[in-house]
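User: My collaborator sent over this chain with a note saying "see what the structure looks like." That's all I know about it. Can you take a look?
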Amino acid sequence: MLYIIFLLAFTEVNSQTERDAILRKNEAIIVYPVNIKGERDLPYCSNELGKVACNIIQQRFWFPSIAYRQCRCQDRSECDKTPTRYGRDDNSVESSVFLSSGAELKFCDSLKDLPECKVGEIGLEIYMSKSADKLSDTNPKPGVPAKISLHCKPNDRYYQWRKTYDQHINKTMDKTYAYEHLTKCKLGNFCGYISRDTFSTYYKCQCPSGQMCLPKEQSQLQSISEVLFEGFAYEGFCSKVRGFDD
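Assistant: Without extra context I'll predict from the sequence alone. Here is the result:
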């Protein structure tokens, strides 16, 4: 039953046109940090140390996406709230960076002027309070805005962020993440973690064409810690799916 539920979630929308229509039809739900009532209360985005994310977008199957507001663009332009499709939108690198298959960072302007990330390079730094936003519906109350700085831009469609530093001082946290390409994996290999609440996949390798990263029938929930996510997830394995072609 678990396998069937995930398969339905990932394959219910068959055509690219249908998926695009749903993404644009369902307006994102705006979530502000605690003690911030609206746009005027948000701080301005400061790009002193790399590009700073203005929104965290979390897609949810069958439900509208959530846009966790972080800061206001200094030129008063609107921070993009439209989700992009993991691995399929060629222009997503212009102002978006993926954290998982369903979560991404949005920036006020293009990332073209940033250097391309090298494998193993520290590309993402997050400074936040311990009560700041988490990408989990099980903990929907966000804290103060996090400062999320991008120092380089991904140069491939398929990548992951590997935590390299995690320091806790009083009520604040400072975390850094290194850019890594996704290696190729084979049928039956462990390929990533699939969050329980939004079905977002934190990939650890790239499954072959015609396969999907899905949990096994008897998969057990595990507590995981990824970029801006702490919660429960299932282990995913490369699985053949009839009629599926990535």
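A starting point for your reply to your collaborator: The longest strand covers residues 229-240.
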